[in-house]
Design goal:
With 284 residues, the chain is of the alpha/beta class. 38% of the residues lie in helices and 20% in strands. It has 2 domains: 172 residues, Rossmann fold (3-Layer(aba) Sandwich), CATH 3.40.50; 93 residues, Pantoate--beta-alanine Ligase, Chain: A,domain 2 (2-Layer Sandwich). The model has no long low-confidence stretch (mean pLDDT 98). The structure holds adenosine monophosphate. Adenosine monophosphate (AMP) binds next to helix 2 and strand 5.
């Protein structure tokens, strides 16, 4: 595996592979890799000739009071995991490389960027789309892999790709969970053993919504209430949002659930903000 730290080196490496007619699959990450990330790497491995993974803790997607400084950065371990997956290219740039001095150009997908996590974390998606656009320019992948875990991010990135005509196919991998149902996240390491148990309330809230929906409940207000009641039984969780929205536009569903609907939740357990979601598919 080649570890590359500059855009220039990455362009040359990719040009060589392209000339040889190879397809490139790309998995952007912030590192602290777990099986959720590796599932995307494996999907890319299965579908593309060359797999490129980036590890970059992107400062512009963190708010001023968020965990940028303490975000885990176990680079040696991540490197070994990616090598074991047979990844060809690891892109691990510095902040200065990705944000040249006095850079003032940003990508903002108006609309979905202000919803869900974008509402609670102002500027978050502007940071995400700016860095992903830069990474796409640097890696020029045929396919890029994202996790359904960050469902709002998927909607925002898909729209960016459509709006800016990026010649990239977006592939979305399912949420990978721990055995007890907690969605894997690099932030789970912040949880104490007690908080780790309390964190299961996110999955329980989604289970309650799914259960009601499967038994015929299609009123979003009632489904929302089910999730709310589940959270109320776990006082350690501070709910940020419970939303039933259109999977593409992230606009709230009103009336009754007719189309695939994203049910997304975010909550804080102590200082750790966690997210999870499920998609409700109405019967035709
Ligand atoms: P991150 O390092 O948190 O920026 O995540 C990098 C990519 O991995 C994103 O596309 C995430 O949606 C995806 N990802 C993170 N956690 C999971 C998970 N538990 N299951 C599937 N994909 C995930």
């Amino acid at each position: 595996m080649l570890t590359i730290t500059t855009a220039h080196q990455m362009h040359s490496a990719v040009a060589g592979f392209r000339k040889a007619g190879r397809t490139i699959g790309f998995v952007p990450t912030m590192g602290a890799l777990h099986d959720g990330h590796l599932s995307l790497v494996r999907a890319a491995r299965a579908q593309c000739d060359i797999v490129a993974v980036s590890i970059f803790v992107n400062p512009t997607q963190f708010g001023p009071t968020e965990d940028l400084a303490k975000y885990p950065r176990p680079f040696e371990r991540d490197h070994a995991l990616l090598e074991a997956e047979g990844v060809e290219l690891l892109f691990a740039p510095s902040v200065e490389e990705m944000y040249p001095a006095r850079a003032t150009t940003f990508v903002n997908v108006e609309g979905p960027s202000e919803r869900l996590d974008g509402k609670s974390r102002p500027g978050h998606f502007r940071g995400v789309t700016t860095v992903v656009a830069k990474l796409f320019n640097i890696v020029t992948p045929d396919r890029a892999y994202f996790g359904q875990k960050d469902a709002a991010q998927v909607a925002v990135i898909r729209k960016m790709v459509r709006d800016l005509l990026f010649p990239v196919e977006i592939i979305v991998g399912p949420i990978v969970r721990e055995a007890d149902g907690l969605a894997m996240s690099s932030r789970n390491v912040y949880l104490s053993p007690e908080q780790r148990k309390q964190a299961l309330v996110l999955r329980r809230a989604l289970d309650a919504v799914e259960e009601a929906f499967c038994s015929g409940q299609v009123d979003p207000t009632v489904l929302h209430e089910r999730a709310h009641q589940t959270f109320a039984a776990e006082p350690a969780a501070v709910v940020d949002y419970i939303e039933l929205v259109d999977t593409d536009t992230l606009e709230p569903i009103t009336g009754r659930i007719k189309l695939p609907t994203l049910c997304a939740v975010a909550a804080k357990i102590g200082n750790t903000r966690l997210i999870d979601n499920t998609v409700l598919h109405p019967r035709k």
